[in-house]
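Why does this matter for the project? Reviewers at the last site visit asked to see concrete outputs rather than summary tables. In response, this paragraph embeds two records directly. Each consists of the residue sequence and, immediately after it, the corresponding structure tokens. Nothing has been edited or filtered.
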Amino acid sequence: MNRHLARNLARLGALITAVTVIGGSLGAYAARPLADRGWLAPVYIALVLAAVVCAFTTPLRRWSAVPPWAFLAPAACLLAWMPYAVQVAPNAAAATREIDQLTLAIFTACVALAGTRGAPTGALGVRAGWAGALALSCAFGLWEIAEKTYLFRQPLAPWTERRIPVGTFVNPNNLSTAMIAMLAGALALRAQTTNAIARYAIDALVAVGSIVIIFTQSRSGVGALIILMALEVWRRTTRHPDASPQAPRSPRRRYLRAGAGVGVAGLVMASFVIPSLARINPLSELWSASWNGHTASSDRGRLRLLQASLRYLQESGYLGSGAGSFEPLLKADPHSGFKATTNLHNAFFEILSQYGVVVAAVMVAALGLLIRVCLAGRLGRRAPRLDRDVRVEMAGYLLSFVAFACTASSSLTYQTWWTILASACAVWWAALPVRRPAPGAQETGGPPSVVDRPHVAGSGVGASAARPPVVDQALHRLQ
């Protein structure tokens, strides 16, 4: 396969990934119009076929890397356990509904992962997709804040009486935690571009996204936002040990930044101290709500739900109570203490309770692997250390993944939740060095080389130039 075709395949895969990420964030807002016109199934089939083409044209040596299997292993284990989960489920209709939604969510994330092809061009598609999703979520959120009108009618929801945005995610907790992944992708895209105008535009988009998250008044969303911004400040204020020395910045620029920081801090303090501003400050309302009786009762209710899920797990012999089984079991449980049926509000415990310790152990192992790479920068001592920007981006995705899982009523069947995990694996995969075959060796399953150069320590996020063919020919003659 020539380089021109390989480059076009990489671009096609990046486009597929970006469309999948944006489409998943729109959820029912995009699916319902397509379904009404009969286009939903053809769109999914076209995306799957294009992803299959990308997967089969990816070199086999790229599939032998660890990152893609950090997502595929727990996904495959969960899919393999589904027949047993359906068999033991107490409610066949609920089990079928959850299995259908869960399978669709996993396959959508697989499409996004396969579209990256383990190349930096595919990682660019991931970042562009999350940046596009952030722009749409900001537009929906600002419209809901200004108009006090929602995309989906929810007459019983408490946030409909206040200016709390929910966007296409139906719930403010879901929106805020999903937007953390959007911010992480947008910030990584900013680090990759060298255009000053594009950087300022992304900074403005990130600022607006942060405001929307604050207006959701979600404790987990605001907490994750603080951690993500701290990571971004650390990334921007520290340099690589291998980076070339930079020219000293002018004192005027430092003074301007310091003055802007002091001004922002003063505005934040004023919004809490001045009564007229405190009444419209979402953070002030969030702080007050965090200490009232309703919030404490809600937290205690979540703990009781977790305890009930562990009891159902034990009663199932630790193999899982079945797909979609928590709500029916909770409703039939006289000792649950809940009058109305509710979700578990924790995807990790949902996997553990309904699908057993085997599936949960594989998921925990995959997450532990990703966290280790974020902290250490590599798996083994001989492996090249990942670029700091990639590690910060991965940390942002994992932060969103965990916050979404522990906050949403049930994120297990959300396409966005699985796509966030696939994104963390995809950018790690794209950052690994390309192992080129020996001269004259036959390569099956894809082109002999990848046209992009990966992110390794000291190379920077924006590095994407391939080794010229003349260099390859010279090395071949030397051998």
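We now turn to the second protein, recorded in exactly the same manner.
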Amino acid sequence: MTYDELDSDYENRVTPDWIDAQLSAHSLTRRDLSRGTGISYRAIVGIFSPTEQRQIRHDEAVAFRRFFKAVAEGRPDDSGDGLRDALGGARRDSAQIPLFGAALTGPISLTPQGRIGTTERAPAQREASRAFAVSVQDDDNAPRYMTGELAYVVGGRAPRAGEDAVVELTDGEAWLGVFDGRSDNAVRLKRGDKVKAFTLDKVRAIHKVVGRG
């Protein structure tokens, strides 16, 4: 079912199976859906609960349809409030974008305290309102990324399996690697020859890497 076919009768046309299919197609989590629509995570879980089987309300169906349409069209959603705060109101037409890093090794810090400077915007980040870059601080992703390289990211743009991504956690930590997919309870990220799993309750957002340098 396409988005244009959802112009009426939202309650019957937007089903849990359709929502799950859209989440899978765009490599998003139910928490991403909650943040992007403003609908509580508990309410979204209730839609999929086999015991609760709560009916989707008209206003929720409209919100779901708008969210997935925006994602399909490549428009950034509103997930990742912590990232928005860390970006500090960076403009989509600015030549310089925020650069984030870590003290030495381990996770990146996508917080105001984790900003270590600015860098020039990459061509693939043109007019992206939530563009930023991260500095690779270790060789855990070698040989794909080496210490000192930069990864250019568009916040809120979902990666597909096999694409580079930054997984942002609820505490502001973030990890760079190759997106390895998600399940109903975890997001997987390849880092070198290892796979790191993050439970969904710890994941704030998944951001696509669009360039490196």
